[in-house]
Structures are given as C-alpha cells and as structure tokens.
Amino acid sequence: MEYKELIRMALDYRKRSYSPYSNFKVGAGVLFTSGKIYGGCNIENAAFGPTNCAERTAIFKGISEGETRIEAIAVVGSLEEYTYPCGVCRQVISEFGDQNVKVIIAKSEEDYIVKSMGEILPGTFTKVDLENNNK
What we know:
One of its GO terms (biological process) is pyrimidine-containing compound metabolic process. InterPro entries: APOBEC/CMP_deaminase_Zn-bd (IPR016192), CMP_dCMP_dom (IPR002125), Cyt/Deoxycyt_deaminase (IPR050202), Cyt_deam_tetra (IPR006262), Cytidine_deaminase-like (IPR016193). Keywords: Hydrolase, Metal-binding, Zinc. Pfam families: dCMP_cyt_deam_1. The structure is a single chain. By secondary structure, this protein is an alpha+beta fold. The protein has a single domain (about 5-135), classed as Cytidine Deaminase, domain 2. It contains 5 helices and 5 strands. The chain has a 5-stranded mixed beta sheet with strand order 2-1-3-4-5.
C-alpha cells in the first residue's frame, strides 16, 4: 500500500474539518481490507460530548457501507507535530482491525511515521478477544 495516498486523503479531509471550538483540524484516511478507502474529518459540537474525531468519522463511514476490517489508517492533525489517535479512536481502530493495522501519523506526504496498533494500543479489548477468552 502506498501510504502517501492515505496521507493525501487525510490532508484533504483535514480541510473539511468543522472545528470552531478548538480550531484543531484533523483528517483521516482509512484503508479497509477490501481495498476501499474512506476519509473523515473531526466534527465538533458546542456540547463537546457529541464531537466526533476524524478517525471515527472515516471508520464509521466504511463500516456503514459494509466494510468489516481495517488494514491501515492515516491521521493528520497539526502540520508541525505528529498527532496520534486519541484513546477512543485507538479502541475503535482495534475493534475493526488487529494488532498489525498500520497507523500512519503524518504532518505531510513526506513527513510521517508508521506504527502498528500493537505499538500504540497494547493489550486490546475487543469482541475477538472476548470470544477467544471464552473458549
């Protein structure tokens, strides 16, 4: 997989961010195992609780279209510092992926790092884990 394609999508969706409260724009591009890619941006709300992160927006778009497994995800927030997925997004990524999902944390197409889900969220708790523990 060419990571730059996912990063470009994340950069594009970052521009679509609705973040009038934090002024912190985030975009994401998610590659599912089917080969389809979905993008998302963060969407804030005055009540803050209903706010949705870019990663979850993109993942939920894919899942709602019938996708089931994530292969990789790119995240772009700050263009000066690496922006990692929040804890909630890490849990959602792990729900629809595994410890090998590639997480591309980017500032630009040329400046990025790649981590696995296992590196950024060790010891996951998912439906698959529950099923394996009940055997």
